[in-house]
Amino acid sequence: MANLFDYLKWRGDIPLSVDPFGEVDNLVLAELAYTDFEGILDGEAAGGFLPLKEICSRYFSMHTEEEVLARETFVRKAPLLLKPLAESERFGGMQLGWYENRICVEKDEQMAAVACLLPDGTAYIAFRGTDDTIVGWKEDFNLAYMRETTGQKQAAEYLNRFRSEEMPLRVGGHSKGGNLAVYASAFCDTAVRERITEIWSNDGPGFLKEVTETPQYEAILPLVHSILPEGSLFGLLMHGKFQHHFIKSSGWGLMQHDALTWEVERNRFVKGELKDSSMVIDSALSTWIDGLELEERKSFIDTLFSVLTSTGSTTLEELGQNRLKNLGGMVNALVALDKDKKDVLGRVLGALNKSSREAVMEEMQKTRK
């Protein structure tokens, strides 16, 4: 089925003045945020903007397509969007700038963003989703117990850089990037928030309930577009309050989270319906998370990731390499845990098992009626 690359072939010759910015355009730019612009938009260029065509030329003088495709991550193809974007009438005149990529293991922080100045006089602020770093995934898990993660705070501060600008703003991202886009839009300065016209969360997880009950969050709800594949898991986690728009994906199971599997027809996504399997999993995870005290959630997450990092790995790619050695290291780390931490792991995993059984039984009873 057609994906983002096909969309740029079909619609790339149609300027935004003829066919205004839409949902697929949003995902293209959200996916572009996964590109590593180190050496291009950082350093001396960090304070300004560069034409997309120049950025594309610089990037592929530093990286080959073979190198990009050899990376072991589901977002490895994101940089390849640069060429069709730069060659298109629709986005060829775009400029990119204010690239930031912040990673701090000690603070469980991973926040990256890039600003896109569009030919229609607007800006799209793209927040990157979870990258391949273990600290990035840990910050995702921290959403289960933290009112505000370091990454969310940094995202709001990043958005405040636009307080002196005048152009209308669109804010978006994929996966955790969608979460950051919603959070930053809600808790940035009022002067910035008033210029936001659209917020795009592409399979982005939700928040603690107390966040969704704030007046700042309530104020931006009419602007939020939440797009989820029909087999979504990540986008259903935690609390959101906004309505979801479900679409079809050519992926299976968790791979539907990969935005390049989302099916496109003309300038829209192909409509879908939430699958029963996703509802069962969501019910199980929601019951599990809501049944745990915040401190127990924190203890479980800290312990789990202490075991993962005991291998010395800093990325999922590294963790996947030499699997037997890394598995042995994790087993040793588990054995070395003190009794309290082992008890927490046992209780939390036991609760997950119980909520999963109950969710399956509930769905079976619905089917029999």
Written description of the protein model:
The protein contains 16 helices and ten strands. Strands 1-2-3-4-5-6-7-8 form an eight-stranded mixed sheet, with helices on both faces. A two-stranded antiparallel ribbon has the order 9-10. A hairpin with a 4-residue loop joins strand 2 (95-104) and strand 3. Helix 6 packs antiparallel against helix 13 (294-309), helix 12 packs antiparallel against helix 16 (339-368) and helix 13 crosses helix 15. It is an alpha/beta fold and 369 residues long. The protein is globular, with a radius of gyration of 21 Å. The protein has two domains: 4-274, Rossmann fold; 282-368.
Spell out the key features of this protein.
369 residues, alpha/beta, Rossmann fold, 2 domains, two-stranded antiparallel sheet, 16 helices, 45% helix
